[in-house]
Amino acid sequence: PALSLDEQADLLPYNREFEFPRDNLKLGKQLGAGAFGVVLKGEAKGIRADEPTSTVAVKMVKRTADNEVVRALVSELKIMVHLGQHLNVVNLLGAVTKNIAKRELMVIVEYCRFGNVQNFLLRNRKCFINQISLVNDRIDPAIMIQRVSENFELNRNSDNDPRSGTRAGRPGSAGYSYDRQTDTCATEATMMTTVPEDEHVMSNNSIQPAWRSNYKTDSTEAMTVTTTDLVSWAFQVARGMDYLSSKKVLHGDLAARNILLCEDNVVKICDFGLARSMYRGDNYKKSESGKLPIKWLALESLSDHVFSTYSDVWSFGIVLWELFSLAKVPYPGIDPNQELFNKLNDGYRMEKPPYANQELYEIMLECWRKNPESRPLFAELEKRFATMLGEDV
Ligand code: ADE
Q: In angstroms, rounded to a whole number, what is the distance separating the alpha carbons of residues 17 and 23?
């Protein structure tokens, strides 16, 4: 008989080369927490070859967690070992597994200093520059260049910039980049598109599964976000997901809260592997209490608990909607219940979010096609965003 995904993950090897000495790891403040686990900031001595100490994120189970939860984190660890490294995935740096019987299990991953893009957009939506041209509905990076140059000093990227993030990070920004650290936008209200506050609350219909929620970051200063940034993030997420799917790994919980923003405008997908084991069997019924990301799930996942790369593509469409609404809660005003399923099943889909053009909205609609196999693949999505950004992949 075929093995379930969890059983497959159990059989994956854990590579001892990732074992990291507990004594070389200093734990810091909390970055996120969920029902069963926490993510802490940390300092790890000698975990990377190129620096004496590195800032890292450490994922652990809570003391009160049961065996299932420990097992889920082990399975996530194994999936990360299996995955290998990719720019647009939060990469594994090491793990502490020696005392796993005493529930000491730490998964050490790259630290992404700007936190998840959902919170990033919520914090910075007042500093949004809408680059969609009123003339032809195209994205025009010049809208930013003109406006920003009045206020910010621009740095021209050198052609041989070794940062891998430059190409993936800001293609289409006409060779310009700026430094997020110094890029504040509080000064000139006039140059920003004013975005209304909305009903976004971390309420019971905003779902916060086990590991994430309430990420805090160092920086509280406001930073500009442009339409080009959003497209660049979409491009990078498609690229990371294409990599995941090439390794036969499903995400199962793709959402803006699971996409982290790092230096150089690089975004990385996190939290794969864990979600799945939460969805299994009876746990699924917990959906009524709002523990499941109903609003991100594909029709077939809702009706038959079927998860696949195709259902990840559906969720990616919801992520696009989140990005181009600047982190609104999907299906505003609708409860995630049977009625939502019925509506979707009858062909209802969300409207175009305010900061998308028609081209972007059509991509969303394609991701939400009823027939899973007629949805676009991540490789195709990656190409389409690259084209939008004026790049060849
Ligand atoms: N919150 C959860 N994981 C994180 C990471 N890798 N970097 C920064 N914040 C996080």
A: 17
* Residues of the chain with confidence (pLDDT) below 70: 1-9, 11-12, 146-221, 273-292, 392-393
Name the nearest CA neighbour of 114 among 55, 202, 175.
55
- Which sign, positive or negative, has the C-alpha torsion 322, 125, 112, 356? positive
Q: What ipTM was reported for this prediction?
A: 0.97
Confirm or reject: Cβ of 32 under 6 Å from ligand 1: yes
Please tell me the distance between residue 57's alpha carbon and the centre of ligand 1 in angstroms. 6
C-alpha pair distances (Å), 259 with each of 49, 212, 255: 26, 11, 7
331 Cα to the center of ligand 1, angstroms:
27
**Beta bridge partners of residue 132, listed in sequence order:** 139
Name, in order, each residue with C-beta under 8 angstroms of 239's C-beta and a sequence gap of 6 or more. 87, 88, 168, 378, 382
Query: What is the spatial distance between Cα 327 and Cα 32, in angstroms, rounded to a whole number?
Result: 18
d(CA 8, CA 85): 20
pLDDT at residue number 7: 65
CA-wise closest residue to 312 among 265, 358, 349, 275:
275
Q: Is the C-beta atom of 270 inside 6 A of ligand 1?
A: yes
Residue 121 Cβ < 6 Å to ligand 1: no
- Annotated binding-site members for ATP: 59
Measured from the Cα of 112, ligand 1's closest atom is: 7
- Name the residue with the closest Cα to ligand 1, atom 1: 31
Quote the longest CA-to-CA distance of the chain: 65
Pair 296, 255: CB distance under 8 Å: yes
Per-residue model confidence (pLDDT) at position 358: 98
Tell me the pLDDT of the chain averaged across its residues. 80
**Tell me, what DSSP letter sits at residue 139?**
B
- C-beta of 90 in contact with ligand 1 (< 6 A): yes
CA dihedral 211, 368, 194, 388 (to 10 degrees): 100
Active-site residue list: 253
- Whose CA is closest to atom 8 on ligand 1? 112
Phi and psi torsions of 167, nearest 5°: -70, -50
What are 220-252's pLDDT values in tens digits? 568 899 999 999 999 999 999 999 999 988 898
Contact (CB, 8 A) for 177 and 265: yes
- Strands annotated E in 203-247: 225-226
Distance CA 217, CA 262 (A): 11
Rounded Cα–Cα distance for residues 122 and 31 (Å): 17
